[in-house]
Each structure stands twice: as C-alpha cells, then as structure tokens.
Design brief:
By secondary structure, this protein is α+β, with helices and mostly antiparallel strands. The chain contains three helices and 14 strands. The strands form three sheets. The protein has an eight-stranded antiparallel beta sheet, with no helix packed on it.
C-alpha cells in the first residue's frame, strides 16, 4: 500500500488512503471486511442501549400519523401511516370520506428493502407513475399503473434518479438517468407510454461533473412525507 501525493493549485497533498478508491482490490475488500467486523462487534456490545433508544423513538412517534392533504389534477389526496405497518398509504379524499389510492406496504411485500422515491398522476388522471428502489442503491425504477383497473402496465424504466414529469398529452413522460458509478443524474430522456425504451429520446445531457440534471414538475410528490 503506497501513499499518494496529489498536486493541485501549487500545493501537494498527501493522501494515505487513496488506495481505497480501488473497490475491487483484494486489500481494499479485506480492509472493509475487517472494519465491518469491528463495527459489528461494537454494536453487538451496545444492544441494551440501542433497544432503549429505539423504544424511546417509537414512543415519540404517532403510529397513525396523517399528513396535510394535497391536490393533484383537481383531486385531493392525503398520506398517512397505519399502526403496525412499516410503510404508509396515500388516500384519495372525497365528500364520502376516503379510499386507499396507493399502498406502499403492498408494493414492499416480499422484499427486504423498499423505497418509494416519488409518484405522479398523468394529467388525465388515468395513469399513476411511481419511482421505486428495491435494492437500496438509489437507482430507481419507474413503473406505470392503470388507475381504473389497478393493473401495472408491462413496461418500466430502470436506472433513473427517481425524478420525472408528465407532458400534458398524458402519454409522454420525461425522466433523468444516473451514472452507474457515481449515481450523478446527468441525462434527461423522453419516453412515450407503450413504446420500447430503446426509442426513448435523449433531450439533454449535463456533461459537467459538478452539476446534476433532473426534471421535476409541480405534479410530483416525494415519497409520503410531503
């Protein structure tokens, strides 16, 4: 393992940990495994404190918390948590009361990890677009659900940033993708429902690595915590 000297702005900086950038190097993997073992041993010794803190956190959270209603395409919705459930629900509100519009618990069933990045309803209120992550890598998959039938359309867009926007024709969606290594959101594409992903048109590419390129509209909601 060698020390790396980095030169920039007439200054030389010594980096003793530069070698950790080589993710697939055996020495790096061995080092990470050693650190994981140390971390696991430490937290195993603190289980009593951890359980006490978690119990206090849970006691301060309303298991049936409801969030402020929001409007989307002329309809009102509300996000809520249900006691005993790990994830939340989106309720469609009406004069008669409310009905479950989207349930994260159903989507997460059978998976070890689940995150709803965001969702948006097409302007004609016929299709729900959702961005989800089932791995924990922040590379979100966009799926489409027929609101009238509840059936998921047989198409999806992978490796996105989770940000997207509907066009007014209710059949076109704009989304941004991420670089696999850095996860920087750098490209914006145009996708037409019921068309192959190979035909998606590149609209914009941010080549400057200091910046991201995302697309978002007022008709987009971030998870359940609005």
């Amino acid at each position: 393992i060698k020390t790396k000297f980095l030169k920039a702005h007439n200054h030389v900086r010594q980096d003793d940990y530069y070698w950790l950038k080589k993710r697939d190097n055996k020495a790096v993997i061995s080092y990470i495994n050693d650190e994981n073992r140390i971390s696991t041993a430490f937290f195993n010794s603190q289980q009593n404190v951890i359980k006490k803190l978690l119990a206090e956190f849970d006691g301060r959270i309303d298991p049936n918390e409801q969030y402020s209603p929001f409007e989307m395409n002329g309809k009102m919705y509300q996000s809520r948590m249900i006691s005993g459930m790990e994830y939340g629900q989106v309720i469609e509100l009406s004069e008669e009361g409310g009905k479950v519009f989207f349930d994260e618990n159903t989507r997460a069933k059978g998976f070890k990890y689940y995150e709803l990045a965001g969702f948006s309803i097409s302007p004609d209120n016929k299709i729900l677009a959702i961005a989800e992550d089932y791995v924990g890598r922040r590379q979100y998959k966009i799926s489409f659900i027929d609101i009238a039938t509840g059936e998921q359309l047989q198409e999806e867009i992978k490796n996105t940033s989770g940000f997207f926007a509907w066009a007014q024709d209710s059949k076109t969606i704009y989304y941004s993708t991420v670089e696999k290594q850095s996860l920087r959101s750098n490209k914006v594409f145009k996708h037409v429902i019921h068309s192959p992903n190979e035909k998606d048109m590149l609209i914009f590419e941010e080549k400057n690595k200091l910046f991201n390129a995302i697309i978002i509209s007022p008709n987009w909601k971030k998870s359940l915590f609005i």
